[in-house]
Amino acid sequence: MIIPVRCMTCGRVLGDKWEIFKKRVKKGENPKKVLDDLNIKNYCCRALFLTHKDISKEVAKFKRVQ
Ligand SMILES: [Zn+2]
């Protein structure tokens, strides 16, 4: 869905870096380099970025059942 605002393991704020990460990886940059530039060093935080899949647009098609 949406990337967690904070890392669930160490508590570092990551929510503000997702858009930057997504944009740069889409341009063809190596995800490792982008994470190094963003100063994200912990394995827990890096895993969150590398394994995240943004599906909010797909989920938005479905309405809530009352
Ligand atoms: Zn972390």
The number of helical segments is 4
CATH topology of one domain: Arc Repressor Mutant, subunit A
Name the bound molecules.
zinc ion
| Uncertain residue segments | none
CA-atom Rg in angstroms: 14 Å
Give the helix/strand class: mainly alpha
* Fraction of residues in H or I helices: 40-55%
Mean pLDDT: 92
Major β-sheet profile = none
Count the strands?
A: 0
CATH architecture of one domain: Orthogonal Bundle
Q: What's the CATH first level of one domain?
A: Mainly Alpha
In CATH, the homologous superfamily of one domain goes by the name Homeodomain-like
The arrangement of helices and strands along the chain is HHHH
The coarse overall form would be globular
Distance N to C terminus: 22 Å
Strand fraction: under 5%
Brief characterization of the structure:
The chain has helices at 18-26, 31-37, 43-51, 56-59.
Notable characteristics:
66 residues; mainly alpha; Arc Repressor Mutant, subunit A; 4 helices; 44% helix; binds zinc ion
Please explain how this structure is put together.
This protein is mainly alpha-helical. It has a domain of 45 residues: Orthogonal Bundle (Arc Repressor Mutant, subunit A), CATH 1.10.10.60. It has four helices and no strands. The longest helix has 9 residues. The chain is globular and about 45 Å long. The protein starts with 17 loop residues before the first helix and ends in a 7-residue tail after the last helix. The site of zinc ion has 7 residues, from helix 3.
